[in-house]
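WARN  no MSA supplied for this record, continuing single-sequence
INFO  ligand: 4-nitrophenyl beta-D-glucopyranoside
INFO  echoing inputs
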Amino acid sequence: TGHDLLVEELPLPADFAWGTATAAYQIEGGATQDGKGMSIWDTYAHLKPSRTNGENADITCDHYNRMPEDVELMASLDVDVYRFSIAWSRVVPLGGRNDPVNEKGIAFYNELIDRLVARNIEPVVTLYHWDAPQAIYDRYEAFLNTEEFRADFERYARLCFSRFGSRVKKWVTFNEPYIISIFAHLNGTLAPGRCREAGTDVKTEPWRVGHTAIVSHAAVVEIYAEEFRPSQHGEISIVLNGHFYEPYDANKQADIDAAERRLIFYIGWFGDPVFLGKDYPAEMRSYLGARLPEFTPEERNLIRRAAHINAFYGMNHYSTKYARALPRPPADDDWTGNIEESSVDSEGKEIGPVSGLGWLRVAPEGFRKLLKWVWKRYHLPIIVTENGCPSTDTEMEKAVDDKFRQRYFGLYLDAISHAIYEDGVKVLGYCAWSLMDNYEWSAGYGPRFGIVHVDFESLKRTPKNSAYYLRDTFKSRRKASPRDV
Ligand code: PNW
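INFO  complex generated
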């Protein structure tokens, strides 16, 4: 069952980078401070009746007012990189291409970046981690209008490149377009919460949303390459998430095919257009037909030109599941490729020990296989932009003595070592999700992913043992051995 897995502390390359990751809405607070506009999350987290667990991130970690302390904390853990996101509504409160810039919002990110650089911590900056300005949603439903969204996102991106690009050398356009499409526009469990119950067209909307993310990504990477890279010399790409999938019954070809198809629906959906400049995977077209948008001739040329600009593959990965083939249904809301997911296989074997969240199990072998799958399909150096878990059940484990999480990190770092030295995969770095306990979206403050504990009454930060584990294991694992690639 994986309960007997042992951490081996396998080596990593000397130049392997490690750090932590966060997202603006989850940690900043300061929801209305200094001219910040409303985002779709400010709205969603305050809906009545509540669509979250009742909690919101008006204050959360109050990082907006405690940022210097948080940078010092990271410096004390010897991190090399910090991945954070910019709240679009903080720098352009109304979001649109003709709307005013909020200089106080710009000043906050300038100070953050300056403090990171002063501490020798490389900023990795995400432009969009789920918090669209409410005003663009009110005007044209944000991602549901490809043309409008793209034009506004281009302006926002240009603003960020020109104000921050002298010091930011790694950019990410979108965090997890799969989640934006499926969770926010089909299941309705993330903002803006569109779903069948809310009376929206779930047959087409998620696929339109994904299309908008792909096209807007391509437009912005081209802008970066043409207008900013010549003087700023940075890199840009996207972050895709995805579980790995094993066949439910390893002796059934249909289940073996289902596991592969599930990866294509999760990752190929975005990866093939973004990194290969190709149309959507044929498997998706065959299941979804006309529900999947067509790239216009202009978009087709754009994604082809933009594909080679992406400098790395940003991977968010947490867990592995089993995939079981289902009979092909009539044209339904099929976002999985007709598979049923489970944590238990046909013989009742669990994929791995369960963490503090039911969907997140410890399965490092799946991580290794996913790294190999992505490398083979896209052949881009991989940066693990998020990986982590909430610890299990006791208060001590949730607080500071988080043995479960330390073991998870240890095993997942061993998987990276295997992928690099045995499978020839190029993995450049690793960001633990997350720097500190924060607002876990609709689940509120329940699940604690932080390597630093946050007391949400006093807002005091206390590093957990996993923070020291990461600091120390990177110190001892990194060796001057040449990469095999
Ligand atoms: C990521 N899944 O989201 C996000 O980027 C973070 O903001 C979030 O806090 C973190 O993971 C932990 O959940 C995901 O169901 C949400 O596979 C759901 C899934 C994956 C990633």
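The first strand starts at residue 12 and ends at 13.
INFO  checksum written, moving to next record
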